[in-house]
Design a protein that fits this description.
Radius of gyration: 19 Å
Shape: globular
Largest sheet: 7 strands, parallel
Structural class: alpha/beta
Length: 328
């Protein structure tokens, strides 16, 4: 799977990727993260991979210290499938993360709550964590509701949120119509979608792109218990642009909100700044160019041996094409 999808990171207009640790088994040790980083970098050497550890009882304050010293582990994350019921048990870990300036990546849904209410129910936990650890950088991953957006806005500068391309396109109705639109957190109401679109261009720096791209093989998406996740990586930048164009045409956001500064901020600089990525000696000279060349998202992509097939989000839709340039 890595060999199939990693080359699509740059094709999608990205040169950096936060790597979630939810493998089988999950990555809970720094040595595992280092090995995974080496494997990814071998396939896509021009991409900067920011590794994370899976929040687990084996992740201690000592492990956090080791992670910080590794220079490749940027954070610790909860998982969308296995919510943490007792977040306070990890307060010593969060204290160490705050001291070492690592990022806490939260999948902000309260377990055992009706799915459409799970993110809103998590908001008090987010505020409690921020109050307890005001210097801890926290990212509410793939925020999906208006309540989540407002919760992040009410927090200080150390709290931000990512927004996915697919959540900018969908509501619950869309997710129910096509198994390849099924994701977690599930897309919510039109009101929530509009709130995400407006947050993406509000210029606050608190919201930035996080693809949450999930390349599940077709047999896992089309089975009885479909895997949650949308595969967007190879077209993620142009999907965002298309979603914003739709929002303008629908009257949900004003045309003047879409400036080069806000686009670059959401797609690049806000996230890089939050993660304190100062190593731009190469990528600072690289830019992406978007052109309308009648490119179509393929119906599926298949591995060279034919054993793995993945269906992209918005398959067979016409989109802009991405190319890289060294021009300023």
């Amino acid at each position: 799977m890595m060999e199939l999808v990693c080359p699509l990171i740059e094709r999608g207009g990205c040169d950096s990727a936060l790597v979630m640790p939810n493998l089988q088994p999950p990555i809970t040790q720094v040595s595992q993260a280092i090995a995974y980083h080496k494997a990814l970098s071998r396939i896509a050497p021009r991409v900067k991979f920011l590794m994370t550890l899976y929040l687990h009882p084996s992740v201690t304050a000592d492990v956090v210290t080791e992670a910080a010293q590794s220079k490749i582990v940027y954070g610790v994350t909860t998982n969308s499938e296995d919510g943490v019921l007792d977040i306070e048990q990890y307060y010593p870990v969060f204290e160490a993360m705050q001291a070492h300036d690592l990022v806490l990546n939260l999948h902000g849904e309260t377990p055992e709550i009706e799915v459409l209410q799970a993110e809103a129910a998590f908001v008090p936990t987010l505020h409690r964590l921020h109050a307890a650890f005001p210097k801890l950088r926290i990212v509410l991953e793939h925020v999906s509701t208006a309540q989540g957006v407002e919760a992040v806005r009410k927090c200080g500068a150390t709290v931000a949120a990512t927004i996915t391309a697919h959540h900018l396109f969908m509501t619950t109705e869309n997710a129910e119509q096509d198994v390849y639109n099924f994701c977690k957190p599930i897309a919510k109401t039109l009101e929530d979608r509009i709130a995400l679109l407006r947050a993406a261009v509000d210029g606050s720096g608190k919201f930035f792109l996080g693809s949450d791209s999930a390349p599940h093989p077709v047999q896992l998406k089309e089975g009885t218990n479909a895997a949650a996740g949308c595969f967007t990586q190879g077209w993620v930048t142009v999907l965002v642009i298309d979603a914003l164009i739709q929002a303008i045409e629908s009257g949900w956001i004003s045309n003047h909100k879409i400036t080069q500064e806000t686009l670059e901020g959401f797609l690049s600089t806000y996230g890089r700044n939050f993660y304190k990525m100062n190593d731009r000696s190469d990528s600072q000279r690289r830019r992406i160019r978007l052109e309308r060349l009648n490119e179509t998202i393929p119906k599926s992509i298949v591995s060279s041996d034919g054993k793995i097939e993945v269906v992209p989000f918005r398959r067979e839709e016409t989109v802009m094409s991405v190319s890289w340039t060294d021009e300023p």
